Amino acid sequence: MTERDDIDTLAGEYVLGVLSADAIRAVEQRMATDAMFRGRIDYWQRRLHGLNALAAPVEPDPNLWLRIERTLAPAAAAPRAATKTPWWQSLGLWQATATLGVATSVVLAAILFLSPVPKSDWVYTAVLQSPDQTAGWLVQANAKNEVLLTPLTTTTIESDRALQFWTLADKAKGPVSLGLVPPDRPIRIPASKLPGVKPGQLFEITLEPSTGSPYNRPSGPILFKGNIVTNS
Fold first, then answer.
1. pLDDT score recorded for residue 51
2. Angle in degrees, CA 46, 47, 48, rounded to 5
3. Rounded distance, CA 118 to CA 160, Å?
4. What pLDDT score was predicted for residue 46?
5. Tens digits of per-residue pLDDT, 162-185?
6. What are the Cα distances from residue 79, in Å, to 32, 90, 229?
7. CB within 8 A of 24, min separation 6: which ones?
8. In the chain, what is the greatest distance between 2 CA atoms, to the nearest angstrom?
9. Does residue 120 sit in helix, strand or coil?
10. One matching Pfam family, short form (predicted)?
11. pLDDT tens digits, residue range 130-157?
């Protein structure tokens, strides 16, 4: 792993709110003097923008608050110097999302809902998930039907295999290939390759031979799939 990879990983974990308290302090100290690092944090915040449209509100279990109060009671009894806590690390953030399944997805949904980011040109968003519900790719589409496909994780494949991107806008016409995609970097898909984009449209990535599917449809297993939604 390169130093750039390490920086990206640390910046992403900071944005997700999964670092320890000591690591958070170290990151914030570095942000004060490292402009490139601040830029990577800003990149991750913008890169993940739009996923908030996929996070449905969930009412937490009332018993959760009792457990939290019992856990925090001993700490509350001991006075300590006031510290400035980032909003994405606050108790309120966790209370708002405490029962949303996988921990990383919980934090991510809350961050994206509250994050003060500029209005995006992307009007549609989809998160493509693996069969075990791991988020693997982010699909964004603008009003011109141009698509940006961004990896959210690293997909390792054999040298004689390739990832192929598909969409299904009309079941009667079947899936449309949007081409082979690199496993480790974003790629733009021009509107000319798409049959249009509409809410609910299916996008998926399959594992194919290195030259792509020999048919006009997927021939290998589906690695990631998801339906696009309109950004709120």
1. 58
2. 90
3. 41
4. 67
5. 999 999 999 999 999 999 999 988
6. 28, 18, 47
7. 14, 86, 89
8. 68
9. coil
10. RskA_C
11. 998 888 999 999 999 999 999 988 889 9
pTM of the model as a whole: 0.53
Going from N- to C-terminal start, the domains of the chain cover 3-114, 122-230
CA-to-CA distance for 17 and 15, rounded, in angstroms?
5
Q: If you average pLDDT over every residue of the chain, what do you get?
A: 77
The residue among 169, 189, 168 whose CA lies nearest residue 179 is 189
> Of the CATH numbers 2.60.40, 2.40.330, 1.20.1330, 3.30.565, which one belongs to the domain with range 122-230?
2.60.40
Query: b/e string for 98-122 if b means 16 or more Cβ within 10 A?
Result: bebeeeebbbbbbbbbeeeeeeeeb
- Distance in angstroms (rounded) separating the CA atoms of residues 150 and 137: 6
| Cross-strand bridge partners of residue 227 | 202
Give Cα separations from 48 to 45, 59, 119, 183, 218 (angstroms). Answer: 6, 24, 13, 18, 28
